Amino acid sequence: MEGEGMTGAAQPDLFNGALETGVRSVVILETVYPDSFDLNQLTWLDHLVVHTGDLDGPKSLHPNVPQRNGELLVRRSLVEQGVALMQRLHLIEVKFTSEGIVYMACEEAAPFVRLIRSEYGRTLKDRAKWLLEYFADRGSDHLHEVITQKIGRWAIEFQSDTKPASGA
Question: In which band, very low, low, confident or very high, does the pLDDT at 152 lie, cut at 50, 70 and 90?
Fold first, then answer.
């Protein structure tokens, strides 16, 4: 069975648990600090930061697997759990704005991100910087357009009935 080792015990989904998505959210938010994103935007960015090859950018961190469209449906819950974990660790703060709830890196996020030194972590930070520059150069609505084109309108509509507020 998939995810089982030689002992038959289920192995955790490396890079796809609440801790991993939370760390990716901290890296993304620290990269755009003091700007913020809502949960939909963080979910989309979490997907794209590991699949930068989809944007004709640097090689993707995670392999391209068939039917990745469904990833967003699962990923939203994981990002939400990860953000909650990072809030408890004082790395992400929630802001209530006139446009809705957004998330922002806390002051403690910068030293935390600097401590990430593994090969995966360094590459993740590079991909986050590339990704956020990519969208900064194209305007805030481009993220929604990319997700609609690359992932499909059905995934967006399943997540939310409205287009998210621009937070970047």
Answer: low
Q: CA angle 24-18-127, nearest 5°?
A: 15
Distance CA 142, CA 26 (A): 22
The pTM for the full model equals: 0.80
**Alpha-carbon dihedral angle through residues 25, 54, 152, 136, given to the nearest 10 degrees:** 60
Full set of structural domains in the chain with CATH: 18-58+71-159 (1.10.10.10)
CA dist 158 and 122 (Å) reads: 33
Distance, CA of 88 to CA of 82 (rounded, Å): 10
| pLDDT tens digits along 70-121 | 666 778 899 999 999 999 999 999 999 998 999 999 999 999 999 999 999 9
Q: Per DSSP, what are the bridge partners of residue 100?
A: 97
